[in-house]
Structure to design on (245 residues):
């Protein structure tokens, strides 16, 4: 059995759904299945149409195309799309960024300054947060120490730096030549306390000071840059680039 959907041409309203023994049987004698059939005012389809339209070339009923639905006001174009009347197509332009809005008059994306400034503020706040983490990571990088042909690692965190600084001050005050207990990690990552003389301590302190100076300089340059960079520069920014040994 086949359902035939009958539409009024004037309104494109489906007015009947007679059941037939086949579409060819319906075509032979429509009134047998739908007594009120009038070929002048009605059209039929073998499928239920959501947005029926008469094809200008064939005269048959079919579903509207997307272009036809837009012209008929049944659907609306989304931002970034416009109707190409000449070619009967829908043109879609990808949104270039978060701070652009669609201008229907010119069919182009245009920068919205409020959105742009909000995004720039967001990027700068994140960059400053990342900067603090990057500086901390750079400052706390482990340092290699060699003593009696053995290699050790000085855990260069704030606590160990302060402890070393205090011991060195005391050593200078007492005019000692060495510090007997400097906390390090051996090649097995186990804690050891080794003895460092004045020269060895000076080398370690110089390394630490160099790192601090690079970190402070990098932070200053980054802060200035973050406050001045365009949004494109901010999107490309990697704060770790400001900290290089």
């Amino acid at each position: 059995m086949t359902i035939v959907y009958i539409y009024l041409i004037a309104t494109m309203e489906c007015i009947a759904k007679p059941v037939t023994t086949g579409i060819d049987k319906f075509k032979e004698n429509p009134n047998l299945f739908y007594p009120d059939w009038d070929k002048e005012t009605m059209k039929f389809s073998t499928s239920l149409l959501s947005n029926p339209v008469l094809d200008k070339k064939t005269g048959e009923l079919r579903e509207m195309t997307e272009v036809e639905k837009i012209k008929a006001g049944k659907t609306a174009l989304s931002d970034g799309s416009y109707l190409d009347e000449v070619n009967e197509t829908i043109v879609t332009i990808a949104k270039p960024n978060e701070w652009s809005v669609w201008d229907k008059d010119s069919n182009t994306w245009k920068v919205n300054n409020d959105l742009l400034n909000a995004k720039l503020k967001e990027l700068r706040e994140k960059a400053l947060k990342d900067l603090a983490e990057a500086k901390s990571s750079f400052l706390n990088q482990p340092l290699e120490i060699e003593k009696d042909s053995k290699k050790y690692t000085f855990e260069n965190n704030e606590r160990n730096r302060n402890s070393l600084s205090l011991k060195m001050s005391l050593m200078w005050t007492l005019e000692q030549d060495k510090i007997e207990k400097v906390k390090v990690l051996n090649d097995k990552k186990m804690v050891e306390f080794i003895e460092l003389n004045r020269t060895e301590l000076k080398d370690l302190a110089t390394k630490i000071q160099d790192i601090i100076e690079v970190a402070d300089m990098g932070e200053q340059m980054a802060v200035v840059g973050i406050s001045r960079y365009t949004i494109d520069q901010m999107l490309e920014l990697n704060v770790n680039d400001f900290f290089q040994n």
Notes: The longest strand covers residues 178-185. The mean pLDDT is 93. The longest helix spans residues 198-228.
